[in-house]
Amino acid sequence: MFVKTGDKVKVIAGKGKGKEGTVLSVNVKKNRVVVKGVNKIKKHQKPSQNNANGGVVESEGSIHASNVKVISKADKK
C-alpha cells in the first residue's frame, strides 16, 4: 500500500474532500485508512469503568485508501 502510518495526506474524494491530516492507522486487507480529523463519527456508549457517564463519543472513521493523496512522507529514522 502506498500510504503508511504517520504520512501527511489530503482527501481528494468524498464528504471530507480538501481536508488534510496525518494517517493514524492502515488496514491493508480492507484497503482503508484512518486520517486524523477526517470522517468524524458519533458512537453511543453505555457507562463503563473507563467512561463512567457514558454518552456520545466522537472518533475518526476509516475511508478508502483511493480517496487520499500523500502530501509528504514522515521522516524515517
Automatic annotation (TrEMBL):
<comment type="similarity">
    <text>Belongs to the universal ribosomal protein uL24 family.</text>
</comment>
<dbReference type="GO" id="GO:0006412">
    <property type="term" value="P:translation"/>
</dbReference>
<keyword id="KW-0694">RNA-binding</keyword>
<dbReference type="InterPro" id="IPR041988">
    <property type="entry name" value="Ribosomal_uL24_KOW"/>
</dbReference>
<dbReference type="InterPro" id="IPR057264">
    <property type="entry name" value="Ribosomal_uL24_C"/>
</dbReference>
<dbReference type="InterPro" id="IPR005824">
    <property type="entry name" value="KOW"/>
</dbReference>
<dbReference type="InterPro" id="IPR014722">
    <property type="entry name" value="Rib_uL2_dom2"/>
</dbReference>
<dbReference type="InterPro" id="IPR008991">
    <property type="entry name" value="Translation_prot_SH3-like_sf"/>
</dbReference>
<dbReference type="InterPro" id="IPR005825">
    <property type="entry name" value="Ribosomal_uL24_CS"/>
</dbReference>
<feature type="domain" description="KOW">
    <location>
        <begin position="2"/>
        <end position="29"/>
    </location>
</feature>
<dbReference type="GO" id="GO:1990904">
    <property type="term" value="C:ribonucleoprotein complex"/>
</dbReference>
<dbReference type="InterPro" id="IPR003256">
    <property type="entry name" value="Ribosomal_uL24"/>
</dbReference>
<dbReference type="GO" id="GO:0005840">
    <property type="term" value="C:ribosome"/>
</dbReference>
<dbReference type="Pfam" id="PF00467">
    <property type="entry name" value="KOW"/>
</dbReference>
<keyword id="KW-0699">rRNA-binding</keyword>
<comment type="function">
    <text>One of the proteins that surrounds the polypeptide exit tunnel on the outside of the subunit.</text>
</comment>
<dbReference type="Pfam" id="PF17136">
    <property type="entry name" value="ribosomal_L24"/>
</dbReference>
<dbReference type="GO" id="GO:0019843">
    <property type="term" value="F:rRNA binding"/>
</dbReference>
<keyword id="KW-0687">Ribonucleoprotein</keyword>
<comment type="subunit">
    <text>Part of the 50S ribosomal subunit.</text>
</comment>
<dbReference type="GO" id="GO:0003735">
    <property type="term" value="F:structural constituent of ribosome"/>
</dbReference>
<comment type="function">
    <text>One of two assembly initiator proteins, it binds directly to the 5'-end of the 23S rRNA, where it nucleates assembly of the 50S subunit.</text>
</comment>
<keyword id="KW-0689">Ribosomal protein</keyword>
<protein>
    <recommendedName>
        <fullName>Large ribosomal subunit protein uL24</fullName>
    </recommendedName>
</protein>
